[in-house]
Amino acid sequence: MDYLQVFLFGFFFSFVGSIPPGTLNVSVLQLGLEGKINTAIKFALAVSIVEYPYAWIGIQFEYIISQSPWMTENFQLVAALVMTIIGIVNLIPPRNKKGFAKKFVESGFRRGLVLSLLNPMAIPYWMAFTAYLKAQGWIDLSTVGLLHSYVFGTAVGTMALLSLLIFFARRLAPYVAGSKYIRIVPGLVLLSLGLYSWWKYFF
């Protein structure tokens, strides 16, 4: 298994996972709409930088959990359960963000860093996805190089999605901010992966 393969898996699932509207990508979108491109790029860079250690932490938790003999024997079942649950959760309409997060809409690198650190959902996300990908035999993180290629892919994937929002802000705004269809895409992808795991577990 080569470095490019694990990088691409990290990139793809980070890109997809960054699609649902939330504090971070909506803030970037608004900055793009206001023409504050430099500020938006700095914000996106900060978010991507934080994604790296959060993904790494998630993988370390996955390592600890996977040492359990029961987990090793039932990896496929656990992967099926996790992906199905995460998929369903992603399909549930999110609640409106209020309070502290809204104060950082017009933000640059520092505020992007703070908002990202206050949004550690990347840790359980990457813990679950890494377990799933390893269960399917799609990635191998047995060396330091492979691990960091994978984690680097997660950071680049986040930056790619946020950059897309910045530079196509006016055209993408109606879909990202208002369309229920773009919001459910990641949930459908996750649910499909869960169903695939159930199929492999039983057949």
Strand count, sense and barrel status of the largest sheet are: none
Q: Which whole number gives the mean pLDDT?
A: 77
Order of helices and strands: HHHHHHHHHH
Low-confidence stretches: 97-107
Global morphology: globular
Number of strands: 0
Question: In terms of quaternary structure, what is this?
Answer: single chain
Our measurement of the CA-to-CA distance between the termini, rounded to an integer number of angstroms, reads 26 Å
Query: Radius of gyration over alpha carbons?
Result: 17 Å
Count of separate DSSP helical elements: 10
Total domain count: 1
What do you see in this structure?
The chain has 203 residues and is mostly helical. It has one domain (3-202). It contains ten helices and no strands. Helix 8 crosses helix 9. The protein starts with a helix and ends with a helix.
List keywords for this structure.
203 residues, 78% helix, mainly alpha
Question: Brief overview, please?
Answer:
The protein is mostly helical and 203 residues long. 78% of the residues lie in helices and 0% in strands.
